[in-house]
C-alpha cells in the first residue's frame, strides 16, 4: 500500500542518502551537503513555502519523494512552462524520485504517482489539471507518468535540471476527472 506524509527535518538524512544515489543524482543534480538539504527542503518542511514535499512509503517502508505545488505559486516556472504548453488556472505540478535503488524498475513509480495524483483532486480542491515536464531522454520517468494515467501533450525546450541534458522536454497532463 502506498502512503505518504509531509517530509520533516528528521527525514533529511534519508533524503540526502537518496539524492546521493547515482540513479537519483543523474536527474536531480542536487547539492547534497546538510546545509543544501536544509536550504532547499527546510522551508517546505516547516510550512514556510507553498509547495509540499511528500515522503512516500510502500508497505510502511520509505520509497521516495513527491514534490507537489500549484504552478501559480511559482510564476517564473509557470511562465517558462507556458512557452511549451497551455498552463490553465489551477494547474498543479509534481516532481518525484524513488530513493532506494533496490526499488527502481519494479513499477513503483507509476503506483506512487498514481496514488498522489488521485489524492490531488481532494487535497487541492482548485486543481484543474496536473502538468509535468520531463527531460525527453528520461524514459523511465515519462513511462511512470504514463502508467499513472498521464498523457503527453507537448514537446519543447525547457531549461533542464542537469546542465548535461538537452533542453528537449515532454510535457504530460492529467485533467481533473469530470473536466473536459
From TrEMBL:
GO MF terms held by the record: N-acyltransferase activity
Keywords assigned: Antibiotic resistance
Region of interest (Disordered), ranges: 155-180
Compositional bias of kind Basic and acidic residues: 164-180
SUPFAM superfamilies: Acyl-CoA N-acyltransferases (Nat)
Pfam families on file: Acetyltransf_8 (PF13523)
Annotated N-acetyltransferase domain residues: 2-177
Domain of life according to the entry: Bacteria
Oxidoreductase listed as a keyword: no
GO biological process, one term: response to antibiotic
InterPro entries named in the record: Acyl_CoA_acyltransferase, GNAT_dom
PANTHER family referenced in this protein's UniProt entry, alphabetically: LYSINE N-ACYLTRANSFERASE C17G9.06C-RELATED
Name of this chain's protein: GNAT family N-acetyltransferase
Protein's organism: Sinosporangium siamense
Record lineage: Bacteria, Bacillati, Actinomycetota, Actinomycetes, Streptosporangiales
